[in-house]
Structures are given as C-alpha cells and as structure tokens.
Amino acid sequence: MTSLARTLVDVATTSTLLAGVTMVDHALRVEQARVERELKQARRGHIPGRPALSKEDLYLELAVVNPRTGRMRAEQAIAFANPLAANPGETLSRVRIFQLGFAAPELQVCFPDILGGDAWVDFFWRRVRKIGEFDGFLKYGTGPVLGDRDPSAVVWREKQREDALRARVSSFDRWGWDLALSPTRFHGFLTERGVPRA
Questions:
Q1: What is the chain's mean pLDDT, rounded?
Q2: What is the pLDDT of residue 147?
Q3: Residue 140 has pLDDT above 60, yes or no
Q4: CB atoms closer than 10 angstroms to residue 78
Q5: Which of 12, 66, 147, 162 meets the CB 3.0–4.6 Å disulfide criterion with 74?
Q6: Phi, psi at 170, each rounded to 5°
Q7: Residue 96 resides in a domain
Q8: Strand 106-114 to 130-134 pairing
C-alpha cells in the first residue's frame, strides 16, 4: 500500500502526461470536496480530518522519491493539474488543447442569471468570448448521472441552457470522446471553430 501522494507521483513518473494529469486532477478535486464536506460537519461539532492534498505535497513526495526517470514528466503533470476539471473528459480536452498549441481556456466559468440560476461552463476563452463544453453520453443516457429524470427533459433543458448562453457569447461548441481522443480530428475541430492559438 502506498499513500495517495506516492501513488500519484508513481503514475506521473511512469505514464503519459495525459494519464498523470488525469489522476492528479481527479485526486485534487476529490480531496477539495472531502475537506469542504468535513468543514460543514465541523460546524456541527465533528472533528475535521487532514488537510486536502495539494500540489506542494506532490512536489515534496516527488523530491523524496527522487526517480531516475520521469521526473520532468511528473513535474509537468503536477504543474498542469487543476482541481476544476470536473471529469476525465475535461482533463483529456485540456491536455489536448495544450499539446496542440491552442490557448488555455478558463475552467468552470460562471454565467449568472441563466434560466433563473447560475450556469457553469467547462471552458471559456474570454478574449474571443467562446464557450466550449465536453459532453459524454452519461449526461443524457440512463444511469447514475441521469437518475430518474426523463432523458428528453434533460436534453430540452440543456438546449434551453445552451441557447441562453449563446446569447451572451460569440460562439458555443461541444465535443465528446471521439473528437478529443483523436489529436488530428480535434486539431481540425478547434481550428475550424476559431479557438485561439497559444
């Protein structure tokens, strides 16, 4: 058994940048969520647990491990990681956007007063007022994400949300696994849609 920090360092030193960033993104996000839950419980008298895993913890663990190979790849994965990536598809998209030489988008940007509430978007290129969203099938298909909601109602609500967001920006584009997994196709897609270069 190894600690979470050690496991992430081992993955980041021995895997691709994509695998390393995916693991670190997820761990940082889950750790932040855990601490937020514990803080809420602490207000009700529970004793809070350990602090959230941080990038600094990972850099310290990397120094302790002092690997013969993979150090630079691990440093890059840790530096690039972001707990705002909500799922592996968003992480895949971010890594591809970086690798293909496009400008880094802002993550999880809030647009207030959309359909009576706040709408959060996956990617936003502020300079060109462009929204990008990664969509997987789970969002619309039966399963834990959909729950007991009617699929057609979910699609209709998402269409209304997208229309309201489009009125506030220059453009709005969606992509899924098939595009993001193919560097060639994703490059063509981002170029055609006017995503700015880095």
A1: 91
A2: 65
A3: no
A4: 23
A5: 12
A6: -80, -35
A7: no
A8: unpaired
How many domains does the chain fold into?
2
Does 79 score more than 70 pLDDT?
yes
Residue 171, SS3?
Answer: strand
Q: Can you give the residue range of the structural domain that contains 69?
A: 4-83
Judged by phi (left if over 0) then psi (alpha if -120 to 50, else beta), residue 191 lies in alpha
Pair (109, 145) in one structural domain: yes
> Looking at the whole model, is its pTM more than 0.90?
no
Q: Is residue 173 part of a domain?
A: yes
Same domain for 110 and 188: yes
Q: Looking at the chain, how many residues does it have? A: 198
Structure tokens given for 131: 């929204």
Both 113 and 144 in one domain: the answer is yes
Does residue 155 form part of some domain? yes
Q: Are 186 and 180 in contact (CB under 8 A)?
A: yes
In this structure, is the dihedral angle defined by the CA atoms of residues 184, 190, 194 and 198, taken in order, positive or negative? negative
Compute the Cα dihedral for 21, 86, 124, 178 and give only its sign: positive
- Residue 15, classed as helix, strand or coil, is coil
| Mean pLDDT, rounded, for 120-138 | 91
Residues 59 and 110 both lie in one domain: no
Q: How far apart (Å, rounded) are the C-alpha atoms in residues 154 and 121? A: 16
Closest CA to 123 of 131, 114, 115, 112: 131
